[in-house]
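Hi, here's the filled form for the chain we discussed.

Project: internal
Contact: R.S.
Residues: 394
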Amino acid sequence: MTHIPSTTGESAVPFWRQPRSRAIAWQALLLAALAALGIWLVLNARQALIDRGMTSGLGFLFDETQFALGEAFFSFTSGDTYLKAFAVGLGNTVLLSAVSILTASIIGAIVGFARLSPNALASSLARAYVYAFRNTPQLVQIVFWYTFFTLFPAARLSWSFFDFVFASNRGLTIPAPENMTAFTAVAAAFLAGCALAWRVAHLADRRRRRTGQKWKSAKPVLLATIFVPALLVWLAFGMPLAWSIPELKGFNFAGGITLSPEFLAIYFGLSFYIAAFIAEIVRGGLLSVDSGQIEAANAIGLTRIDLYRRVVAPQALRVIIPPLAAQYVSLLKNSSLGVAVGYPDLFSVSNTMLTYSGRTIEVLCIMAAVYLALSLAIGAVANFVNGFVQIPER
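And the returned structure, exactly as it came back:
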């Protein structure tokens, strides 16, 4: 009788002897060993804390604090919980990072374009800016800005700009909306409308490419998408329009808001430093566009705006966005340098929390998890935007 080999390959071999099964088994054993090691480390650390009379857990977040924060995203006084202190640090970090990212992007784009300018003075100044801010330590820049702002005159001798803005050693005092909550909500609705309008414009462009027909009502729809959500939120808050104008009364200012020297130092330090790197990223993205396409666009008579909007920007953004996201993440992490000038960001507040509570491991784990979550969120947004600017290829 002749033996007929199986035509199904691995099906004739018992599953426990198949390479795929053994690979899965080894990986499962490795994961189990790592999990056992992690559990052993946690239990060992917990027993060490118990032996020293120290407790563990996250219950301390609801205990009352014995410290106050001078600059808070919202009101915080001694006696509030550690959880609220943590929220203050998180809010300050997110606010500082958001405004610094916006400023660094604007400055970086301007300097990046200036680096390629045919005007020798503009390109030389842009090159000097990049070399100066990129090649000096960021901490030195932050301390420089802090020293600069603290050398301003006292409040009674402050520098006034049209009686609206005052600069003193207490910081920069500027007008502010009286209903800051409504202003924040309207701004968030406006940004959400802009993001939605971008998506609608992208879908309209895909439809035009597929059908060859232009969407005639695209502009009114886009304008409505941008402004209607913000308008509805503004109406919901009772149409607030009043602004608080700062005024010097006695030894201090009344009205408006004051940006402290600590905030200004870390804000300028982050913005100008990261802008130097963004400028080089923008310059590299613009240079990546083939010169033949620019010559072809000029040959068919495209205006300067259409040249950048239809030819240069779609191709340059593919190169710019990935490294740009890395710089945004770097800016977020470098915001922890605010501790050098006493700005109560997430790192500084966490450091104060672990000093008063003695929960070093818990506070460090929470802080690391939050920084990780914020960095991943920036990466996710960058990937989302990168998906829009990618040019489909066959």
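Let me know if anything looks off before we file it.
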